[in-house]
């Protein structure tokens, strides 16, 4: 009858096809880019179609009545059964299409971006691995399957961040990402262990029901939810373990777009959404989440204000927006609201943040640098499609009508407004101001480059030496041409090998703008921009889809004005500092130099963690344990053997080799025996 | 336990195939290098095939001991040749088969004294197979000793770093462990009143609690030396570093499991009250070993030392699972024995390939190997990820089972063990980064990548690891059939 | 009764001889002197046997046979001992027992 009968097979297909792609490519095709691409595209298009099919046709599900299909995966004892299965309800359906769509668009985009890279096959294999893990994560029914997918997503992230592994910074960043998220994940694991032992099952529906009906003891609820939040904090880069995400920008930009803005980092927030009734049942946890996410929102916005690398700005923006989403969910939990606001912002954010990253990718690919000041000088504004779409994305991020960001930010602010204390919504508004400011700092710098003799260039023109220029992916033209009829601006000259990598310095006469960007790269930009424009107006329908009914909102005009005001204020400040003709290109923060330095040093968080690692982990524990092993434990063993040898040497001193002592000893023993026998008997 | 006699002596064939191979090798000459290797490979292959057969052919519905062969040996002392297969030892027999087969393939490039090497290696493997399949304490111990003694020669002649010291230390330390085991065994033998070494019969005897406590601790510490129980583990890193590649694979992969398997099969089986008494202590030592191993591994610069300390940590997980005394914990412990065995064999195999070419294992000297030999590097990296506990590979499930049941029974120790997962990830990735990523060392730039033939053993190991990672029920379903009656019988 | 008709006399004699021989074996430094002392001890044992034979044993020949045995054994042993002493002398150029300590621990 419809999709419901074959739900299990469809979902299994969605999840396992990318896994198949990963396996096939890694075993057979990792040196054959075209084959790898074909396998990967097939195994991501089919899930895309299936996900949309499910999204559009599965009816009769709601949060209260999900469809659950599963099989037994591991049965160790009656108390320990791990199922493998899927939970289909509006939340997971929506996330499935988000993930599938954006992953597919990224794969298309990467055709152009990663062209010519020697690791092309490996790249698509890793993307497929990620796809499988993420799709399994969002549709999992058991928390353990979710945890497994969570870890696998982290693995894919590690492989992709450290993709250009010859670069020390890249391999370092990959390791950092894995270890820091693992640090959060041990909390997650502990939470799952407690749930298994004291609650008996890891079934999401059961856990949510227990939260809803308060059938779980409160201590268990609070402890477990806090522990699970540790995992969320790691994956969604919340304070204080957010430090891995900016470094993760070492990976190729499409990876940053897919993993580290739209989907993987959203997995943490998605988990809160998935377990919303469970989290909402514990006010303590919600307060903690609220506090941490607010700190995250503000902290990362301030760092984004002073960054020069466009990917870093977007990365810090992602961190702060994730905080914003979590604020929405936590606040809703505290006031008895619903998950819509935070989740809606997740949806819109996925679209416009991926868009922002992909646009950045176009600029990076074109100019060979991540520094947007240099891009500006080299004529970034003349790449039409990216410039337009990046502005659309920026407007959405800043929360300007009619873009999707406006609607979702309003929704979250509305939830914050309904909290008893107005401090939260104030901080949220401040965050909105900062967001608009740093976003438009980038846009205005790109749009309005200063003339060459402007004194701002004295400061801004040192191009940081390799910084984040991504090695070989910058197509040297050795890649397979011909298949993709792209006219990359520089390949236009006839694809001669040995054509320079630093055409960044060639003047911006690239001819027609529509030759500036290959269509495989501009197509996703246009699609995402389309989503950004449209999603805002679908708010009502989405709410109905997710919650079962749409709540008519009375508009809170005060809040509306405040929010729009904050955004416009931010844009205005940015215009004053960066856009206007008289702008000095020095942020207003320059007036507080120590504060500015504090932000540039990323609030010294990296220093703190580095210190923790070096002094505490390596210096204290590791060194002490090693010393203990070598000297104390092993020393004990060696001491045993030395004492045996020494004892033997001591005893051998008894061997005097004097003939007569031996004889004397013999005689004494005999005499003793004789006396004993003669007397004692 | 019900015993189902074997229609065809599968287990004896498995046990004797290496012996036959050994005898044939005695008549060959050193110059017939290819023939020597083929004979070893064929005898290892026969055992491997038979171990797969017993693993797959074990009837889970029937349960009990299957493929049993029982012949009285020395009636005066009550010694019988009693071998059988059940859920607990089938995975370990399979593990031995896998590791010896891939080990022979890994040592294909050995150049000096090849014939003698394979003779000793086959002798060692005979001992290992014998331990896993024996249900008579005398033969159990006999095979145990056969498994330990050839190590000395193998490390002494074909080893590398500090081989004399390592060979001596390893052998003497393991002998000291045996010195603790024998009193335990004999204590049980003499106080049972039955004058038999048959474990199943002894299980039925209710020993006095004081006898159980003393016998258990003797056997636990004695077997624990081989199992790498902290603090009796220091022979292991030194020994693994010095040993040649396949010997390390066998030793860390299989021999250390002999120790923990023996704790399970002999000590816990025959002295349940002794076990209850000492369980907290066991859990403590195991938890310390887990945390300790990862921290010390963090400071190492020799690749094999890193793997050695990782083994100490993972064997701690086995010990922790055993100490919980629950179905899940024991399931996890046996699964971890298998999973870790495969993983460690893969580790050493991968390192061996690199060492054979670069003659260094210092991670500060090596670098960028992924660029030079990507496939060989991928083997090590896969093993490292497995060691870090990434799902999709067998040891994830094993650790999951053990850690969750550990939290139930020993909350504090269990939580510390979970916390060590992050340090485990750190040291695994640190090694990977230093050895395989970053700039290649120009000294090694000209080496070729692994050929398909040499890649075969590593692929086999990865295949098993991933297969049981994706379908853990195949393994756990089998292990369960023997653990559940085991726990009930306690 | 004449003391010469009492057993104790000869036993005392044997004991004194044995003690002198024992003292000599244990304290003389010259290997030949040790050998002589050993002969003394053997003779003391013979006297002991003869004494018991004369006063207690039923058959008169037993003690005498044993004494002859002792003498034969003593002769053989002296031969061997002297050849060992010769070998020691060749090695150490001395027959002082304090020099023969190579088996020292």
TrEMBL record, chain C:
One of its GO terms (molecular function) is quinone binding. GO terms for cellular component: NADH dehydrogenase complex; plasma membrane. Keywords: Cell inner membrane, Cell membrane, Membrane, NAD, Oxidoreductase, Quinone, Translocase, Transmembrane, Transmembrane helix, Transport, Ubiquinone. It catalyses: a quinone + NADH + 5 H(+)(in) = a quinol + NAD(+) + 4 H(+)(out). It comes from the Bacteria. GO terms for biological process: ATP synthesis coupled electron transport. It is found in: Cell membrane; Membrane. The keyword Nucleotide-binding does not apply. It is a multi-pass membrane protein. Its EC number is 7.1.1.-. Coiled coil: none annotated. The chain crosses the membrane at residues 9-26, 32-53, 65-89. The keyword Cell membrane applies. Belongs to the complex I subunit 4L family. NDH-1 shuttles electrons from NADH, via FMN and iron-sulfur (Fe-S) centers, to quinones in the respiratory chain. The immediate electron acceptor for the enzyme in this species is believed to be ubiquinone. Couples the redox reaction to proton translocation (for every two electrons transferred, four hydrogen ions are translocated across the cytoplasmic membrane), and thus conserves the redox energy in a proton gradient. NDH-1 is composed of 14 different subunits. Subunits NuoA, H, J, K, L, M, N constitute the membrane sector of the complex. PANTHER family: NADH-UBIQUINONE OXIDOREDUCTASE CHAIN 4L, NADH-UBIQUINONE OXIDOREDUCTASE SUBUNIT ND4L. This is NADH-quinone oxidoreductase subunit K. It comes from Desulfobacca acetoxidans. The lineage of its organism: Bacteria, Pseudomonadati, Thermodesulfobacteriota, Desulfobaccia, Desulfobaccales.
């Amino acid at each position: 009858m419809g999709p419901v009968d074959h739900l299990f097979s469809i979902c299994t297909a969605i999840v396992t096809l990318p896994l198949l792609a990963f396996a096939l490519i890694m075993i057979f095709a990792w040196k054959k880019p075209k084959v790898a691409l074909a396998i990967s595209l097939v195994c991501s298009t089919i899930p895309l179609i299936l996900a949309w099919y499910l999204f559009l046709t599965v009816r009769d599900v709601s949060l209260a009545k999900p469809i659950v299909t599963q099989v037994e995966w591991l049965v160790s004892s009656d108390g320990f059964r791990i199922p493998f299965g899927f939970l289909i309800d509006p939340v997971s359906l929506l996330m499935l299409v988000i993930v599938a769509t954006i992953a597919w668009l990224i794969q298309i985009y990467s055709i152009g971006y990663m062209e010519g890279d020697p690791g092309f096959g490996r790249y698509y294999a890793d993307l497929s691995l990620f796809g499988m893990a993420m799709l399994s994560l969002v549709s999992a029914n058991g928390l353990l399957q979710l945890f497994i997918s969570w870890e696998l997503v982290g693995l894919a992230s590690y492989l992709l961040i450290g993709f250009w592994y010859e670069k020390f910074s890249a391999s370092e960043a990959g390791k950092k990402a894995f270890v820091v998220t693992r640090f959060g994940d041990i909390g997650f694991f502990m939470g799952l262990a407690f749930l298994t032992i004291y609650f008996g099952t890891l079934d999401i529906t059961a856990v949510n029901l227990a939260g809803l009906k308060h059938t779980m003891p409160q201590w268990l609820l609070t402890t477990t939810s806090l522990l699970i939040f540790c995992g969320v904090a790691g994956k969604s880069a919340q304070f204080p373990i957010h430090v891995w995400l900016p470094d993760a920008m070492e990976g190729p930009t499409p990876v940053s777009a897919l993993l580290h803005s739209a989907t993987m980092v959203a997995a943490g927030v998605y988990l809160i959404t998935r377990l919303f009734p469970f989290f909402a049942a514990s006010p303590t946890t919600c307060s903690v989440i609220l506090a941490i996410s607010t700190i995250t929102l503000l902290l990362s916005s301030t760092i984004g204000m002073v960054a020069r690398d466009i990917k870093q700005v977007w990365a810090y923006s992602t961190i702060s927006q994730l905080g914003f989403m979590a604020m929405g969910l936590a606040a809703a939990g505290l006031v008895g609201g619903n998950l819509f606001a935070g989740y809606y912002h997740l949806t819109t954010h996925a679209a416009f943040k991926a868009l922002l990253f992909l646009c950045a990718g176009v600029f990076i690919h074109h100019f060979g640098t991540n520094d947007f000041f240099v891009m500006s000088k080299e004529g970034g504004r003349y790449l039409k499609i990216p410039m337009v779409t990046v502005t659309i994305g920026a407007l959405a991020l800043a929360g300007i009508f009619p873009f999707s960001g406006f609607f979702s930010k309003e929704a979250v602010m509305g939830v914050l407004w309904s909290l008893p204390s107005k401090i939260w919504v104030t901080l949220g508004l401040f965050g909105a101001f900062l967001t608009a400011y740093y976003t438009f700092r980038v846009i205005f710098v790109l749009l309005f480059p200063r003339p060459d003799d402007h004194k701002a260039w004295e400061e801004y023109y040192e191009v940081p030496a390799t910084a984040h220029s991504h090695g070989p992916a910058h197509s040297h033209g050795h890649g397979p041409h011909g298949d993709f009829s792209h006219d990359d601006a520089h390949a236009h000259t006839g694809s001669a090998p040995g054509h320079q990598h630093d055409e960044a310095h060639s003047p911006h006469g690239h001819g027609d703008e529509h030759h500036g960007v290959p269509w495989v790269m501009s197509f996703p930009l246009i699609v995402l921009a389309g989503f950004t424009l449209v999603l805002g107006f679908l708010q009502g329908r989405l709410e109905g889809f997710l919650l079962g009914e749409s709540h008519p909102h009375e508009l809170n005009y005060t809040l509306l004005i405040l929010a729009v005001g904050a955004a416009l204020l931010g844009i205005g400040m940015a215009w004053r500092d960066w856009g206007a003709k008289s702008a000095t290109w020095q942020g207003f923060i320059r007036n507080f130099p120590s504060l500015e330095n504090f932000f540039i040093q990323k609030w010294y968080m990296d220093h703190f963690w580095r210190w923790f690692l070096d002094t505490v982990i390596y210096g204290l524990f590791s060194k002490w344990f090693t010393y203990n092993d070598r000297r104390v434990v092993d020393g004990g063993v060696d001491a045993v053997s030395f004492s045996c040898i020494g004892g033997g040497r001591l005893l051998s001193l008894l061997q005097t080799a004097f003939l007569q002592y031996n004889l004397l000893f013999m005689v004494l023993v005999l005499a003793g025996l004789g006396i004993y026998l003669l007397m004692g008997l | 336990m019900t015993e189902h006699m074997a229609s065809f002596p599968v287990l004896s064939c498995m046990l004797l195939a290496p012996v036959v191979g050994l005898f044939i090798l005695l008549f060959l000459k050193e110059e017939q290098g290819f023939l020597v290797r083929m004979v070893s490979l064929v005898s290892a292959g026969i055992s491997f095939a038979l171990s797969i057969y017993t693993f797959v052919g074990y009837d889970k519905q029937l349960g009990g001991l299957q493929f049993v062969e029982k012949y009285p040996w020395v009636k005066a002392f009550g010694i019988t040749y009693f071998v059988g297969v059940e859920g607990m030892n089938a995975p370990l027999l399979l593990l031995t088969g896998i590791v010896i087969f891939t080990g022979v393939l890994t040592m294909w490039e050995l150049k000096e004294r090849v014939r003698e090497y394979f003779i000793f290696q086959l002798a060692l493997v005979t001992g290992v197979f014998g331990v896993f399949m024996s249900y008579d304490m005398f033969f159990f111990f006999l095979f145990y000793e056969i498994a330990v003694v050839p190590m000395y020669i193998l490390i002494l002649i074909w080893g590398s770093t500090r081989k004399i010291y390592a060979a001596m230390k390893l052998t003497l330390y393991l002998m000291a462990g045996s010195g603790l085991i024998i009193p335990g065994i004999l204590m049980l033998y003499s106080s049972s009143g039955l004058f038999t070494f048959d474990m199943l019969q002894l299980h039925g005897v209710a020993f006095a609690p004081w006898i159980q406590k003393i016998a258990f601790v003797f056997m636990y510490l004695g077997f624990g030396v081989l199992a790498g129980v902290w603090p009796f583990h220091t022979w292991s890193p030194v020994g693994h570093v010095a040993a040649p590649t396949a010997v390390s694979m066998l030793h860390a992969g299989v021999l250390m499991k002999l120790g923990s398997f023996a704790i399970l099969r002999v000590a816990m089986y025959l002295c349940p009250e002794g076990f209850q008494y000492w369980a907290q202590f066991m859990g403590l030592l195991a938890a310390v070993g887990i945390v300790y191993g990862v921290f010390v591994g963090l400071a190492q610069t020799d690749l094999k030392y890193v793997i050695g300390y990782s083994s100490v940590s993972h064997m701690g997980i086995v010990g922790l699972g055993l100490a919980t005394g629950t179905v899940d914990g024991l399931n996890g412990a046996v699964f971890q024995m298998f999973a870790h065995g495969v993983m460690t064999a893969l580790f050493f195999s991968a390192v061996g390939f690199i060492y054979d070419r670069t003659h260094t294992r210092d991670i500060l000297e090596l670098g960028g190997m992924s660029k030079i030999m990507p496939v060989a590097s991928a083997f090590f990296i896969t093993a490292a990820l497995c060691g870090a506990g990434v799902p999709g590979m067998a040891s994830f499930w094993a650790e999951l089972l053990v850690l969750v049941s550990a939290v139930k029974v020993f909350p504090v120790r269990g939580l510390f063990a979970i916390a060590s997962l992050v340090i485990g990830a750190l040291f695994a990735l640190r090694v990977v980064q230093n050895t395989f990523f970053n700039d290649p060392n120009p000294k090694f730039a000209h080496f070729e990548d692994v050929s398909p033939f040499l890649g075969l053993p590593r692929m086999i190991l990865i295949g098993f690891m991933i297969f049981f990672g994706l379908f853990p029920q195949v393994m756990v379903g089998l292990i369960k059939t023997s653990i559940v009656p085991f726990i009930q019988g306690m | 009764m004449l003391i010469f008709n009492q057993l104790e006399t000869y036993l005392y004699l044997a004991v004194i001889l044995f003690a002198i021989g024992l003292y000599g074996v244990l304290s003389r430094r010259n290997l030949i002197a040790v050998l002589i002392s050993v002969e003394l001890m053997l003779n003391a044992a013979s006297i002991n046997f003869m004494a018991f034979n004369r006063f207690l044993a039923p058959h008169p020949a037993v003690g005498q046979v044993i004494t002859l045995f002792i003498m034969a054994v003593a002769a053989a042993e002296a031969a061997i001992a002297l050849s060992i002493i010769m070998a020691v002398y060749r090695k150490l150029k001395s027959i002082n027992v304090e020099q023969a300590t190579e088996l020292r621990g």
